[in-house]
TrEMBL record:
CDD domains per UniProt: Anticodon_Ia_Ile_ABEc
GO MF term (any one): ATP binding
InterPro entries: Anticodon_Ile_ABEc (IPR033709), Ile-tRNA-ligase_type2 (IPR023586), M/V/L/I-tRNA-synth_anticd-bd (IPR013155), tRNAsynth_Ia_anticodon-bd (IPR009080)
Domain of life the protein comes from: Bacteria
Organism of derivation: candidate division WWE3 bacterium
PANTHER family reported for this sequence: ISOLEUCINE--TRNA LIGASE, CYTOPLASMIC (PTHR42780:SF1), SOLEUCYL-TRNA SYNTHETASE (PTHR42780)
Domain Methionyl/Valyl/Leucyl/Isoleucyl-tRNA synthetase anticodon-binding: 54-209
GO BP: isoleucyl-tRNA aminoacylation
Protein name: Methionyl/Valyl/Leucyl/Isoleucyl-tRNA synthetase anticodon-binding domain-containing protein
UniProt keywords, alphabetically: Aminoacyl-tRNA synthetase, ATP-binding, Ligase, Nucleotide-binding, Protein biosynthesis
Amino acid sequence: PATNVNFSYGAAEIVRRRFFLIFWNTYRFFVGNALVDGWVPKKGDKSARREVLDQWILSRSNSLVKGVTEALDGYDAKTASEAIERFVVDDLSQWYVRRSRDRVGPTAEDESSKASFYQTMHEVLEAVVRLSSPFMPFAAEEMHQNLTGSGSSRTGYTIKNSVHLALWPSFNKMHVDSPLERQMEYLREIVSLGHSFRKINKIPLRQPLASLTVKGSSGFKTQKAELTNLLKKELNVKEVLFKNDGELAVDFNTKLTDELKAERSARELVREIQGLRKEKGLKLTDKIRVSYPDSAPNKLAVAAFSDLIRRQTLAEELSPGKILRIWSKRK
């Protein structure tokens, strides 16, 4: 009440782009892939083994519940809303979902990892939607009705199960893992240094590299293997080495072997094929035939990474040609 709040169409548009669209697209990613994979929530399902990313996001979401609840109990809506925005944008969208994209959909092969993602994401989304309902009542209602199976804008809302009548999320300290949160923050600091290195040296992330050396570090203190594997995937390297000397810094082995070059060409081909799938409006489950430009890099890529290309694009046939073309095998 003592502070002036600027409001305009321009300010509202900034918030829409910076938060609402990111939140909505995160929700749509979950719903769209869950429909494709035929996943439905099971109350109290504990069968899926949580991966390190799932454990981390559950910890972060419970920390969020605690912080937002305390802020609103103290009538501090600003602190509460900013905490929700940071969580959705920085933690949920730009880290958890981005690092989990290859765990779901028709091209994902690990059913246990897939189940763990869906169960975790559903729990987290349900909690965040309820936390955000005082700030975005209509969008929260739409998401809540769909996530809980209560109804939708097409079938009609079930007032009895409205998000505004739902129980406020409860803080579960058993899900809070402060050491893991600190280790993930440390990992993301290394990732930031790695991305900066690649940018300065003009090495695109799509180009795999042989190794990463992290100086000034003895490695991760908890769940070392899983966190190291996560670091490998994020920075697209085959090996991570730690050297406990000096300040925190990173260095890459930038020597490119024929295999590393071929892998990059394969990933470039996958990206272009996925672009054509999107242009043609194909479903995520549609099988395709592919004709690719008959160049030397493409030949090497297909020879060495045919399985990867087929799996990630749902291509049943790969044949050389003059230009990149795809045909749907939809019946």
